[in-house]
Amino acid sequence: MRLLTERVEQVTAEHLDAMERQGPPVDLVKAYAEPIPALMICELLGVPFADRELFQRHAVTVNSNDATPEEKYAAFAGLQGYLGELVRAKRRDPTDDLLSDLTTGDLTDEELTNVGVLLLGAGVDTTANMLALGTFALLSNPAQLAALRAGPGLADRAVEELLRYLTITHTGVRTALEDVELAGQVIKAGDSVAISGQAANRDPARFADPDVLDLRRPATGHVSFGHGVHQCLGQQLARVELRVAFPALVTRFPGLRLAIPAEDVPLRTNSDIYGVHRLPVGW
């Protein structure tokens, strides 16, 4: 993933240039947060970027708590149909991308399609929301914003702290494979357990002053990408994108500010992935 850093920097600069040409105010979600990770995952997988509105819409529906089961199923089926056609095209005429590389292995079309659905769906929605909500958090904490702007070398630690503080993928479910005793409570084999990543990442036994955003905090040990065998497959790509995009944004626009009152920013609370629907900013 580190080999992609230069390309991420180029894509980020192009979108900052476009924002500067357009002039304020702009919706940071549409102008910056969504297109950068979408373009990177498209290039990595070999998915046409021109189709991004289609698969972004499907990905948002799959994660929406407002969508009916039928709507979610239709969105997932739409992603499967789209990726299935693409996989068959890659087998016939491979190009220089991850999906084409995977067609040379022993994965069936169905398996490869579902790999593509997972990577594409997760790659376009999670990092986009992290970028937008992270910027909102920084703009709401001027001292932390100033610290990041003054010290680009703080980027790695800042990203980990923002991941901990925000925990945009907030809940999960796991099933015990054997009886486990946890804090005096027996979880029996076969029991399902709902897990709150937000509670874990704000556990005062692990992080001092957990409700405070502190970019200098060593936030290692957070569970924003999951844990164990279920850790996020794309976490290193997300880290590369965030480590480039946050400092570049606040450096290019030193006067970056919200263009509407903070209480009017529409929060995305109806989804498995927390974020903002829009983030109007000026400078």
UniProtKB/TrEMBL annotation:
Keywords: Heme, Iron, Metal-binding, Monooxygenase, Oxidoreductase
Name by which UniProt lists this protein: Cytochrome P450
Family per record: Belongs to the cytochrome P450 family.
The keyword Cell wall biogenesis/degradation belongs to this UniProt entry's keyword annotation: no
InterPro entries noted in UniProt: Cyt_P450, Cyt_P450_B, Cyt_P450_CS, Cyt_P450_sf
Species this chain originates from: Nonomuraea cypriaca
Source organism, top-level taxon: Bacteria
Listed Pfam families: p450 (PF00067)
One GO MF term: monooxygenase activity
